[in-house]
Amino acid sequence: MGEQPVPGRGQDGNEADLGQDRPHSARMYDYYLGGKTNYAVDREAAQAVIRLFPAIETVARVNRSYMHRAVHFLTQQGVRQFIDVGTGIPTSPNVHDIAQSVAPECRIMYVDNDPIVLVYADALLDGAPEGRTGYIQADATQPEAVLVAVENQGIVDFDQPVALSLHALMHFVPDPLGPYDIVSRFMDRLAPGSYLTLTHCTGDFDSKSWQAITDAYIKRGTPTQVRSRAEVLRFFDGLQLVDPGVVLAHQWRPKAGSGPSVLTERQVSLYAGVARKP
Question: Which domains occur in the chain, in start order?
Fold first, then answer.
């Protein structure tokens, strides 16, 4: 059983509505990863998904492993600024832990719309003294508002390249909300030489199960839409994809010496890619 999160306050200092009465995708993800920052309602929803597709826990772990590799790669490319949208419950190592292990001067802004993340944000603000980290509560479907809030923190210099991280986020933005336009609006604001790193669930390898998962999330109040590889590729329109392109997440630059993966395409069901803004 997960440990009950404690009440907290919002960024305005007022008592925060932590949404204890409804499941949230970030807290369900925390449960998939074996975390304790979730409520009974989150666990019930997550268990319902696990019954439909037990490999969902594998999907979550593969997503985390990909994030580690992508952030390490981007830092090696000279990126020193990151905006991580859809941060979720802090789970070590976080983006700043990985980036600052390579370059301590890295600056990272975290963004999430779940107020419970703010309660635990201290774990996101413990970066290397040479760099800076910050956190804002904001809605990814309003990119201009997100970017203004990020800029107001004074941590990210928008005249310099930034890596935008949208990991396991855009499948919670169905087509009526304009997901491709949202990503374009984020990237339009970033300097040339910036990068997009994105992961996205897919039903390409088990459409029936993923339709059931989608229905389960929607039933519990979370809009959800998985997409095909061709649809995920569209998020990178106008950008220069880094080899090996958009592939299943465990196939994206696997760690040297890790050996062949025993995971099947169905178990992973998550596309990933990194692309550079020319």
Answer: 56-205+224-276 (3.40.50.150)
